[in-house]
TrEMBL record:
The name this protein goes by in its record: SpoIIE family protein phosphatase
Domain (PAS) ranges: 234-304, 359-428
Key words of the record: Hydrolase, Membrane, Transmembrane, Transmembrane helix
Leader peptide range in chain numbering: none
Length: 865
């Protein structure tokens, strides 16, 4: 039916209902007003009923209760056509009133009570009209069985069933029991009161029975509802469980229609669940896959057990591999009533497996292509894998290598060492490979033992941590190493010989104790450019030089030898430190690409002064007795070889017994360390060494060793040569005497010398010193003019005698004849002295000579013998 025809039918129904209501209302108004509108004679006039009209009862007029019922029926029809549920419910209630009006007429007939079928003295309702009203009321109430009050009786649920039973009971049993009560009264079985009591008792029994039956039905409904809820919850949980599975899960009936599917199945098919459930397999999957799926379902149902298959499916232009398992779902009788399938996307798993296989193949290829023999052992040291190189190295097939302890591949005497190395490596748990080549041996199938290099590493396998051993025969390498070691030692001896010859052996002066340390570099065969020198000078002075040619090797050592020779020669020419340094700078500038740091100082033991000049060298440390070492200030300058920058000297006064420390940068320089901090550490170390020892040469040696141990704890890894020179200044004592140029001055000089040596507790020098003083004074009186100045300087066990006169001629020894009475003075002085010299100055000439206790003893012994 079209929408237009439906609207027309509704309009016609509403018009008919309205007409019926108006007719009923008009008839009712005739009764109320007492008039006669002729409604009953409007279409057809009944002339034969005029006597009724004359009697006051118009012919054909319906009874008042019928008019009310007709008006209610029309109103109810109008309400049922409205969309609102509350209006529909009111219309259904009016229908029930129409039904009750018809039933009242029938109850009046059954109980012989005419008053139930009429209103007052008016004409009563006809029985057939009552039947029509009952049917009309029932039709109005049930016209819309799913809406309003009718929905309570007509629904398929428990309330509808109970409502229908109770309605039938109410409509049938009370009238029947009332009729039976009246029949008993009419027969005379009981009176009115007993009849009322029986009626009430019957109603109670009937309605109690109805209540119990309703409760029973309600209980069954509750149980069924609880079961339904449990099943619904189980179904919901099952659905949620299925949705959380990473696999595709689906259930189909025996016809191939989907009854359930999870979220992963929705994602794979690209369809929502509402479009999957209820549809056949061919309606969800592509024809090719649907045909294969139906064939798999049929195979599973035929076998009655689970079936496994693998499908290759393309989703979003990407190939996927699904592993599907189909199994039947039995009913209560054990017969299959549905098919369940679980599909797992194994694309990544298959790819990972293929990758693992490729990795295993690469590992096997790597083992076979390795240049060394590779052995893989388990935690107990049993060989589980070996390559072809291992077969060739040990001279046995791979089948013999597998399953034996790896220690059995070593000679009997070396098995404990190999086992200890393997256990130590596993105990440390190191991840990086460790190589051992010292005293590690292997043996082949013929029993030949040979040295090997073993590299241990860790492999993480499925069975735990495995141990890999890369074994290499190093017999040839050992022979080459032995030859190289011999050659290296030979070259090292040559280098040390060259180094010592270039550096020389600086003299050890009795009056100037020194501690000397030279630590060669761990590279370049220990040859470097460090050097130092102690140069005795005239007039109780000593020159000390220390230098460092930048660079290492033979070239630096050659430059060092040239500089040492040049420095020694310039120092012997009695040059001041700054003049000497400037001459060295010019010399180094002539060399190609050379830079040299150097420090030269001159110690004047008699004056207690030090003249210092430094060319970019680390500062000199000076420590007075009992005090912390300090840096001696020197003008800042650049290394030798830069050129164009004059070098200046400075003078410092030192207390007797002070200690000087000269060193090269290899002692204090360290990668990443602050140079000032390292120098401060050296000063602290020297202070602790000097404080805890006495002022002897042995204490100076111990302090030098302490400095090297502290600043260079691992000399085998030090990459620069180191020079350290510690100098202890002597406790010098000086006396002087002015003598006139006359013969008796020789006697005064002898007495002065004897008294001074007695005070200084150096009596061993008295005899020789008096002879030397007498000869020098006598020579000066004979060949010089003016007064004489005699000076005595005692430093340790060394005595320096100096005589100054105003002569401009240096003393010259001459060869005296056997009969000559003079001419032997200087020869005698030279015999009693360890050194003699002459110094010219503006006031004249100074002749000095040096002697010590040992020399004096030797002279006296020679004279006596």
């Amino acid at each position: 039916m079209s929408r237009a025809s439906g609207r027309l039918s509704v309009s016609a129904g509403r018009a008919a209902a309205l007409c019926g209501a108006v007719i009923g209302l008009a008839s009712l108004m005739e009764y109320v007003s007492g008039g006669c509108f002729g409604i009953d004679q409007f279409f057809v006039r009944d002339d034969t009923a005029d006597h009724l009209l004359a009697a006051g009862s118009p012919p054909g007029r319906m009874a008042p209760n019928t008019a009310v019922a007709l008006m209610l029926a029309g109103s109810a029809q109008l309400m049922l056509s409205r969309p609102r549920q509350s209006v529909v419910a009111c219309g259904q209630a009016l229908g029930l009133l129409v039904l009750m009006l018809g039933l009242l007429r029938w109850y009046g007939l059954i109980y012989r009570v005419p008053e139930l079928g009429r209103i007052g003295a008016y004409v009563g309702m006809a029985p057939h009209t009552a039947s029509a009203l009952v049917l009309l009321g029932t039709g109005i109430f049930l016209a819309l069985p799913r809406q309003g009050l009718a929905g309570l009786l007509c629904n398929t649920g428990t309330t509808g069933m109970m409502g229908r039973r109770m309605t039938a009971t109410v409509l049938v049993l009370p009238p029947l029991m009332g009729w039976l009560r009246l029949q008993g009264q009419d027969i005379g079985w009981y009176g009115t009161r007993l009849g009322a009591a029986l009626l009430v008792s019957g109603h109670v029994c009937v309605f109690m029975t109805v209540v119990l039956l309703s409760l029973r039905a309600g209980h069954r409904v509750e149980v069924a509802h609880s079961r339904a809820q449990n099943r619904l919850a189980t179904s919901r949980w099952s659905q949620e469980f299925m949705d959380h599975l990473p696999a595709l899960v689906f259930i189909k009936d025996l016809e191939g229609r989907y009854t359930a599917a999870n979220a992963e199945f929705e994602r794979a098919t690209g369809l929502p669940r509402d479009e999957i459930v209820g549809r056949l397999t061919q309606e969800v999957l592509s024809p090719r896959f649907a045909e294969a799926a139906r064939a798999a379902d049929a195979e599973m149902l035929a076998r009655g057990s689970a079936v496994h298959r693998v499908d290759h499916i393309t989703i979003d232009d990407r190939a996927h591999i699904y592993s599907t398992t189909l199994f039947p779902l039995p009913d209560q009788n054990g017969r299959p009533h549905a098919v369940c399938g679980i599909s797992v996307d194994e694309t990544a798993k298959v790819a990972a497996h293929q990758q693992v296989e490729r990795a295993h193949q690469r590992f096997r290829d790597l083992m076979e292509s390795a240049p060394d023999a590779l052995l893989i052992t388990d935690a107990d040291g049993t060989v589980v894998m070996a390559n072809a190189q291992a077969e060739r190295l040990f001279g046995m097939p791979r089948s013999h290598l597998l399953g034996i302890p790896v220690e059995h591949l070593a000679p009997d005497a070396h098995r404990p060492r190999l086992s200890a190395l393997r256990r130590a490596y596993r105990r440390l748990g190191a991840d990086r490979p460790v190589t051992f080549d010292e005293d590690v041996w292997a043996t082949d199938a013929d029993g030949r033992a040979f040295p090997v290099e073993v590299s241990l590493g860790t492999l993480k396998g499925e069975a735990g941590h495995l141990l890999s051993l890369a074994v290499r025969d190093i017999s040839q390498r050992k022979r080459l190493e032995a030859e190289l070691s011999d050659r290296y030692r030979q070259q090292q001896r040559i280098a040390y010989t060259l180094q010592n010859s270039l550096m020389g052996d600086p003299p050890r002066l009795a009056h100037l104790p020194t501690a000397r340390r030279y630590l060669p570099s761990a590279q370049d065969a220990g040859v470097g450019g460090d050097w130092f020198d102690v140069i005795p000078l005239e007039k109780g002075r000593t020159g000390i030089v220390i230098g460092d040619v930048m660079g290492r090797g033979i070239d630096a050592a050659a430059v060092m030898g040239q500089l040492r020779a040049a420095t020694h020669a310039l120092a012997k020419a009695d040059m001041d430190p700054e003049r000497l340094m400037n001459h060295l700078d010019s010399f180094v500038c002539e060399l190609r690409d050379q830079l040299v740091t150097c420090c030269y100082l001159v110690l004047d033991h008699h004056q207690g002064q030090l003249s210092l000049c430094s060319a970019g060298h680390p500062p000199v440390l000076a420590a007075d007795a009992g005090r912390r070492p300090r840096q001696l200030d020197a003008p800042i300058s650049v290394p030798l070889g830069v050129g164009g920058v004059p070098h200046r000297q400075t003078t410092h006064t030192l207390a007797p017994g002070s200690t000087l420390f000269l060193y090269t940068d290899g002692l204090v320089e360290e990668p990443g360390a602050d140079l000032d901090a390292r120098i401060a550490l050296l000063a602290e170390t020297l202070h602790s060494g000097l404080t805890g020892a006495d002022h002897t040469l042995g204490a100076l040696e111990q302090t030098a060793d302490l400095a090297l141990r502290t600043l260079i704890p691992r000399p085998e890894r030090h990459d620069d040569d180191v020079t350290l020179l510690a100098v202890r200044l002597p406790d010098t004592r000086t006396r002087g005497l002015v003598l006139p140029s006359e013969p008796r001055s020789a006697s005064r000089a002898r007495h002065f010398t004897a008294r001074a040596l007695l005070d200084w507790r150096a009596e061993d020098l008295t005899e020789a010193a008096q002879v030397v003083v007498t000869e020098l004074v006598t020579r000066a009186i004979r060949h010089g003019d003016g007064s004489l100045v005699l000076s005595l300087h005692l430093a340790g066990t060394e005595l320096t005698v100096e005589l100054t006169d105003h002569s401009a001629l240096p003393p010259r020894p001459r060869r005296a004849a056997s009969a000559d009475e003079d001419g032997r003075g200087l020869l005698l002085v030279d015999a009693l002295s360890t050194a003699r010299g002459t110094r010219f100055h503006s006031e004249g000439t100074s002749v000095w000579c040096r002697m010590d206790t040992a020399a004096s003893t030797r002279t006296r012994w020679s004279a006596r013998t």
